[in-house]
Amino acid sequence: MGAGTEPDGSSRSDEEWERFLRESVAGVADAPKEPSARARAVAKRLRAEPGRGVEGWRSYTPPRPKRRMGWYVAGLLASLVLLVVALAPGRMVELLAGGASDSPPLAAETARPAQAPPAEVAQRPTMDEPFRGSPAAGWASGAAGITVPKAGAVGWMSAAEVERALARTRDFIVASGLERGVLRGERPEKAIALINPHQKDVQDLLKTAFRTPSEKNDPLLLFSRFQPSRTHLVGDVVKTRGRLTYREGERGALQVTADVTFVYPVIRADAGGHDEIVRTIVRRELVLSWDDPDKVITEPGTFSIVSHKYDMTNGGCGVRTGYFTPPFGADRQADEAGTEIDPYDRSAPVGRGESSGDECGRATRS
Fold first, then answer.
1. In the chain, domain spans
2. Which 3-state string (H, E, C) describes 327-340?
């Protein structure tokens, strides 16, 4: 075989053979080189160390990229927040302000509170949420907000009779301050039927109060009424908070005290599409006597009224009409000239009575 002959019989040119001989002597730049004795020693030592991975003497491991999962999660959460704001901005504001409307109701009131409820985040009421931005949002509705204590024997009554009298007292509160017909201005027949018909002063009040109301004979002293041609209630719910207490009264009678606050959301009857909601807030204190029929002239199932007084805000001032007259618009500013009252503060006694004159309380919040 000649110098330029391949095993398969083909031949190389003289130039190719000459280049092959030169590269064999000088070496090719890209050809791998034998590691030095020092490099082989270092590699051997690294292989001998425990827990140390063996890498080639010329091997290279690029650094791992930093994880960016935290940024992905933050971006996803931000997108969800923006979506909620876009779909339900009002709800988002409530959540951020801590004023969610579906907060659980307060526990029943069993004693006079030590202080007024804390201030709420200022929020305007709406037709769907008329108690929004008010402490009453966490109150119970209707009769459920009136705490009735456990009954025990008192004076001439057994425990069972006291329990029945307490239930009828609450019936009077419902019939006088919560029944829808009465709130629309109807005569409170159910409530009147529970009052002792032989109590002359009260019967005189009832005879004239609905026909010719005055400061002395005003149905609002005992009953909550709105004039339907002027005011409409918002929704079917009236918020209440209060309690009944009892003790032995004169001549062995059962004396029951009712201290209850009512919150009535109302709008002007001709509001149309402009629904300005006003909350009329009334706190009543009634002291009733369930008398021994052997000592007092009375009828079974009826009580005598010992005293009655109330505080009222956003219910109108001036001439007595026999109805609450909530002020709307510019009238609200003219109505805010009386003594300041926090209508939700139940820590102090009720301040308004029959002889309070024309003074009208000004609500510090509603």
1. 141-363
2. CCCHHHHHHCCCCE
